[in-house]
Each structure stands twice: as structure tokens, then as C-alpha cells.
Amino acid sequence: MPTIDEVDRFSERFGKRLVVDGVEWRYYRLGTGSPVLWLTGGLRRAALGYAALEQLATHHTVVAPDYPAIRTIQQFLAAVDRILRTERVDRVALVGQSYGGLLAQAYLSHQPDSVERLVLSSSGPADYGRAWLPLEQLAIGLARVMPEELLQNLVVAGLATLGKDLPAAQHTELRDCIDQTVRQELTREDIVSHFAVAADVIRTRAVKREVLRGWNGPLIVLRAENDPTQRRDDSARYRSLFGRAPQLLSMGRLGHAAVLSDPGSYCGIIEQALS
């Protein structure tokens, strides 16, 4: 599992900052080769995946943003556009892990000509209808008013359940990593942002079925047998959203957070999806 010292070392070595529309974005660029845009999950700090990203960078140029406390998907899309322009990257393999998979599908809808292939890891089809909005709005409201310690406890407990089927020692290490990140790195506004951007994706219909159906790049989905976010009907939903079934790659029993718990094995599977 990542440690503070290792994350700090990675951030100092590869970290960059860019202000977009008054918001400071922190992101990482490393490696050489064909470009990969890595969109991290709900812990919002791409540097937590430093081990996998450094291994991936042996064959690829990797660009990976953190997520500041924004409120709209348009802020995210504009910032990623600026980051890629700043780094002179025109076309990418787009990898979205967990929550990053939702953002990846919105970005593909926004810039289909810039995406060579889409790899979704421990994520699902972003086909959420407006019926989901009340649930997202409830989460936003609770995150705004709940006592901070209780809010942190709920976030840690919720994220930790995603690794409940890992071996006991790995699950404990994963929970400790989540706990440390939530309490030391994330603010209340970060947690509000998590739900606010998801709600805005739904509200603005940022994931565009007509665009995804017209996009012809490889669509690869990584699935773990013990990932509680994976559903039996995902393949049918992907077929409805993209107009075709995805290529499925098995992650065995690496779980939802393999990028943290087993970065070597995880990166090997990502490389298969990129080859």
C-alpha cells in the first residue's frame, strides 16, 4: 500500500500545477511513449497509485490529474483539455478507474476524436438517468451539514467495503490507506465535489449515447470477481450505451482497489488492455 513518504516523493518528482478558470489543478506527467490519460478513483489523489503509474510509464507517457473541489463536469472537461494542450498531447488511451470511469465516459463524449481507446477498470456504464438525481442531491446535502468526523467515518467505511473480499491483511492495509487519505487529504468540499460532479453529469446529460455509439475505438472493461461494484447486467448496459459489447479482461480476485493493493499485477493487466 502507498505510504505518505512515497506519495510525497512521487508528487515532488512528477507533479505540476495549472490554474484553469481560477481553480488550481495538480497533475502528474511521467514516462515516454504512447500517451495514457489516467483518471483516478474516489480518493481523488492520483499520486496514491504511484507504483502502478511508474510501472506504466516505462512504456507510456502518463498524464494523471488530481481532482480539486469543483462542482461541475464542465470544469473538469475544460481542465483536462488545458492539461493535455499544455503537455502537447493530442490523442490518448483513456483509462478510468472506479469513479474515474464515470469521468472518462463524460470526457469521451466531449472529445471522441482525442481518445484512441477506452479502458474502464472497476467501473461501470455511465448510463444513469435523472431518477438518480435525488439520491445524489441527498448525498450532497448530507455532506454539507454532517459533523466532519461523522462524515469522514462514513466515507472511510463506505470505501473500505469495496475491499472486503481481499485477504484480511490486505483489507486492513487498504482501510488504513483510505482512512489516512480521507482524514489528512480530503476536505468537506472534496466530498461534496464527488457527488456534485456526478449529479452534474446526470443533470447535463454529459455522457452522450449518440457520441459513444459513433465512436469506434477499442472498448475494454476490466472486471474482478470479488468487486462489489460489478453487476451481472453491465455488459448489456454497455451494449445499450455504446451500441456494442465491450472486450472483457479478467482481474481474477484482485478486487476493486488493485491499483493500491497489488499495483504490479494490476499494471500488467492494464498493459494488456493497452496493447
Question: Main attributes?
Answer:
globular; 8-stranded mixed β-sheet; 8 strands; alpha/beta; 275 residues; Rossmann fold
Short structural summary:
With 275 residues, the protein is α/β, with parallel strands linked by helices.
Overview of this structure, please?
The chain is of the alpha/beta class. The chain has one domain (4-127, 201-274): Alpha/Beta hydrolase fold, catalytic domain (Rossmann fold, 3-Layer(aba) Sandwich), CATH 3.40.50.1820. It has helices at 4-14, 50-56, 73-86, 99-110, 133-145, 148-160, 168-184, 188-203, 209-214, 234-242, 258-261, 263-274; strands at residues 15-20, 23-30, 34-39, 60-65, 92-97, 115-121, 219-223, 247-250. The protein is globular and about 45 Å long.
Q: Count the E strands.
A: 8
In total, the number of domains comes to 1
Chain-averaged pLDDT: 94
Stretches where pLDDT is under 50 for at least 5 consecutive residues are: none
CATH architecture assignment: 3-Layer(aba) Sandwich
Strand order of the largest sheet: 1-2-4-3-5-6-7-8
Number of helices: 12
Q: Characterize the overall form.
A: globular
Topology order in helix (H) and strand (E) letters: HEEEHEHEHEHHHHHEHEHH
Radius of gyration: 17 Å
Give the CATH level 1 class.
Answer: Alpha Beta
Strand content: 15-25%
Q: Helix amount, in percent?
A: 40-55%
Main sheet: strands, sense, barrel: 8 strands, mixed
CATH superfamily: Alpha/Beta hydrolase fold, catalytic domain
Structural class by sheet pairing and helices: alpha/beta
Question: What name does the CATH topology carry?
Answer: Rossmann fold
Q: What separation lies between the terminal Cα atoms? A: 27 Å
